[in-house]
């Protein structure tokens, strides 16, 4: 991971994401963080640059990572995607204010971007202030992993922090076969791709898959949640993403979306 991109609107949500990104990146001199402000023209470029100077003053004592702010005009999502390609960005980091558990239909700019983008995204909840990355929980469904390539990004993060990856499958119906051929195939894939950082695969039952995942994270004090929304394909098409949307809104730990 050499190039990181943060959509930055000067909100407390964005500032919190920047704090996390700096800690996530340091002290690696090869990493650059690009701060992208998408302007609607309501304030001048000078005002935007003055705001950036104020924000970046906090990090003047940091040699690394390097922080580069810039301004573009346009619509948020297309502009982020355009800059991601132009800058050859490895990971987009976005803050989110989140939502209460009963607010399932809420739509935020972050949730819209996560649904629209086919690239790795790290979502940082506004209330998440600490930085610790010892354990990552990877949530998998009951289908066979069809696209294994997103696991490389998970391996990259795990290797950087020497973090162990715990895999969780939440089943909302009783399973008759204790260990299926699909489970065995996924197990071999995880052991091969995650290597020494793979810990174990847990299976649990809960009628509500989303609450099962979030409950497991809280109970086991996990540091990050990883999901692979486009990995489990049915007839060659990705799912509608309800689980991804829900977790983007309600996660209390950083969410690594592996596309």
Automatic annotation (TrEMBL):
<dbReference type="Pfam" id="PF00582">
    <property type="entry name" value="Usp"/>
</dbReference>
<comment type="similarity">
    <text>Belongs to the universal stress protein A family.</text>
</comment>
<dbReference type="InterPro" id="IPR006016">
    <property type="entry name" value="UspA"/>
</dbReference>
<protein>
    <submittedName>
        <fullName>Universal stress protein</fullName>
    </submittedName>
</protein>
<dbReference type="InterPro" id="IPR006015">
    <property type="entry name" value="Universal_stress_UspA"/>
</dbReference>
<feature type="domain" description="UspA">
    <location>
        <begin position="1"/>
        <end position="123"/>
    </location>
</feature>
């Amino acid at each position: 991971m050499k190039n990181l991109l943060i959509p930055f609107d000067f909100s407390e949500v964005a500032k919190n994401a920047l704090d996390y990104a700096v800690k996530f990146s340091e002290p690696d001199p090869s990493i650059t963080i690009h701060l992208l402000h998408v302007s609607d023209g309501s304030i001048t470029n000078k005002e935007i640059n003055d705001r950036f100077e104020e924000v970046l003053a906090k990090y003047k004592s940091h040699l690394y990572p390097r922080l580069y702010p810039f301004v573009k005009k346009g619509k948020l999502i297309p502009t982020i995607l355009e800059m991601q390609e132009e800058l050859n960005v490895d990971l987009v980091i976005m803050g989110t204010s989140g939502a209460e558990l009963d607010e399932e239909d809420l739509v935020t700019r972050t949730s819209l971007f996560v649904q629209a983008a086919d690239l790795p995204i790290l979502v940082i909840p506004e209330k998440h202030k600490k930085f610790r990355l010892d354990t990552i929980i990877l949530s998998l469904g009951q289908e066979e992993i069809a696209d294994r390539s997103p696991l490389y990004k998970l391996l990259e993060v795990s290797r950087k922090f020497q973090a162990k990856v715990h895999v969780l499958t939440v089943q909302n119906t009783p399973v008759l076969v204790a260990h299926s051929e699909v489970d065995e195939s996924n197990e071999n894939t995880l052991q091969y791709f995650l290597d020494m950082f793979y810990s174990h695969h847990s299976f649990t039952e809960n009628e509500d898959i989303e609450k099962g995942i979030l409950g497991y994270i809280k109970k086991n004090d996990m540091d990050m949640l990883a999901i692979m929304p486009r990995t489990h394909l049915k007839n060659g098409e990705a799912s509608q993403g309800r689980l991804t949307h829900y977790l983007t809104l309600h996660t209390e730990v950083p969410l690594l979306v592996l596309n």
